[in-house]
Each structure stands twice: as C-alpha cells, then as structure tokens.
Amino acid sequence: MGGRGAMRTQEARRRIAIEAARLISETGLRDYRQAKQKAAARLGIFDETSLPKNAEIEDALREYQRLFRADDQPRILRERREAAREAMRFFADFEPRLVGAVLEGTADAHSAVCLHLYTDQPDAVIALLQERRIAYDEESRRIRLDRDTARDYPTLRFSAGGTPIDITMLPYDLLRQAPLDRVSERPMRRATAAMLDALLADA
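^ thats the sequence. predicted structure below, dont judge the formating
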C-alpha cells in the first residue's frame, strides 16, 4: 500500500509540475510557488506533500517549451539575449550580470531581461536613465544572500525597444557573492557580457 501511495504522490507532483509549467508559459506567471498552488487547485490536489519542488517545475517548463513552443521560443530567447547584450553595454560601468530566464534558456514572450548591477551609488544608475530620457518604475526586491540572510534592494523596470528590462542594484562588495537562486536555492548562475557573447555565438 505504501508503494502505491508513493506512486500516487509522485504522479500528482508530476501533474502539478506540468500544469504549473503551462501557467507560467501561457500567462507569464513567474512566482513558482504561486504557480504550483494554482496548478494544484485546478487539479483538485490539496495534499502539501504532492507539491513539486521548484526544480521540477523548471524541468517541466523546459519540456513544455520543447513540445509546444518549439516554433517561437528559440527565436524569442535569442531576441531577449541580444537585447540583454545591448543593455549590458549600456550599463557597462556598473559591472552588469545577466540572471534569470534569459540566461537559463527558459525565456518566452513574457520574460524580462534581468540584470544585476553592482554599485555603491544607485543614484548614478537612475541619473543615467534620466539623462537618456528613459521612463522607469522603481520598486524593491528581496534578495537572499545566503540561507539566513535576505535583504531588500532597489529595482528599476523599463522598456527598451519593446523588451522589458528589469535591473536590481546591489552593493559593489556583493559582486563576488552570488545571491541564492529562487529555484535551486544554490548560488545563482550569473553571466558577464563576455559569457553572453559566447552563448550567442554558440547558438
């Protein structure tokens, strides 16, 4: 009985992960916890132990894109990466690092280009946007530095050529310390401009 129960739980996790991936791809929902809770509710599964891990949702998202978005996702990903390259050149003085879906390869039409900028003078970034007459929205984002430490940092959102750009400004001394990834809870993967150029060349 225990074996059958484990199999049912595993199957439920798989169904929730697939439905969460569909929600993420089709609606632009990027909060993985919210996506799996919505998916579970739609499927009528209310057992917390059946909720998949974020990494399972990420795998399901890649599979969904491969099966149902093969015609347009690679093109959109390349466009986003090219936009990221331009944005990184624009912010070159602030040690930009590309993070998130555009780097990981799961970007779609809903995805923003997400950059981390490293500076002890966030006002300098704002001044650059104002100088170029780029309209932006200012928010804050909680970043997990390690398992015990999370802090809020300023975030700017704007559009460049129709592509949403999302930048988080971090203190310069964090350049050597990658924040924790929300999916894997391990140090976040980051790419320099040179690493992004290599990705584009390989593609």
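The beta strands are 97-99, 113-118, 137-146, 149-160, 163-170.
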